[in-house]
Amino acid sequence: MKVLVVEDDKTIADGLHYSLSSEGYEVVLCEGKQTAIETIKQQRFDIYLLDLTLPDGNGYEICEYVKENQEAPVIFLTACDDEINVVRGLDMGADDYITKPFRIRELISRMKSSLRHYQKDHTPTDKVKIGNVVVNTKLAKVYKGTEEVMLTALEYRLLLAFINNRGQVLSRNQLLEGIWDLDGNFINDNTLSVYIKRLREKLEDDSQNPKVIETVRGLGYRMSGSHA
């Protein structure tokens, strides 16, 4: 079970790392908003523990990013338990909050509860939404708004490769492996560029400024997962 802890108080962060690691969790620590966002772009986590007050932002902004790009529970760690802060966090999609100081056993219990509820409420679906694009994987149909988008078999396989790794950066080699021609025809790097260009032309509102399939300079591509 992989946990991202965003906490700028080193004593609290180190204590959480030790306690959660002892319980078998794989823990990654971040001290601020920007490093957390960059980490989330590169990795997926099963649950997020976010401090509200950070040196370069706040936990609300990270929560918003998580909920737009991944499907995982978020718990706020806060010294502020007044109603306004609590309601704001829950309205943004946070799954729970726990007030500092807290006992580690209580936190772990809350984490397990959030994971159970989240898994129950987020059962797999045949429909995937990316912005105003909806993919029905059961029927292998793609819609942009209310209009069906006609994709070739290779374009659809490329789209599925992005969907199955949503929010993660995929190198060109990883994408080539994901759309290898079933008939055995070789798909080269130039061909991949053509297919990405075609996919963007069909799915993006502005293919020159893509929002669905983003270019990550020097690394590859990422499906943003942001909602319209």
Structure commentary:
This is DNA-binding response regulator. This protein is α/β, with parallel strands linked by helices and 228 residues long. It has two domains: 2-121, 3-Layer(aba) Sandwich (Rossmann fold), CATH 3.40.50; 127-223, Arc Repressor Mutant, subunit A. It has helices spanning 10-22, 33-42, 59-69, 83-91, 104-121, 153-163, 172-178, 189-203; strands at 2-6, 26-30, 47-51, 53-54, 57-58, 74-78, 96-99, 127-130, 133-136, 141-144, 147-149, 169-170, 213-216, 220-223. Strands 2-1-3-6-7 form a five-stranded parallel beta sheet, with helices on both faces. Strands 8-9-10-11 form a four-stranded antiparallel beta sheet, with no helix packed on it. Helix 6 (153-163) crosses helix 8 (189-203). The longest helix is centred in the middle third of the chain and has 18 residues, at 104-121. The radius of gyration is 20 Å and the shape is elongated. It starts with a strand and ends in a 5-residue tail after the last strand. The model has no long low-confidence stretch (mean pLDDT 85).
Biggest pleated-sheet summary: 5 strands, parallel
The amount of helix comes to 40-55%
* Spatial gap, N to C terminus: 30 Å
Radius of gyration: 20 Å
Q: Roughly what is the average pLDDT, rounded to an integer?
A: 85
Protein name: DNA-binding response regulator
GO molecular function, one term: DNA binding
InterPro entries: CheY-like_superfamily (IPR011006), OmpR/PhoB-type_DNA-bd (IPR001867), Sig_transdc_resp-reg_C-effctor (IPR016032), Sig_transdc_resp-reg_receiver (IPR001789), WalR-like (IPR039420), WH-like_DNA-bd_sf (IPR036388)
Pfam families: Response_reg, Trans_reg_C
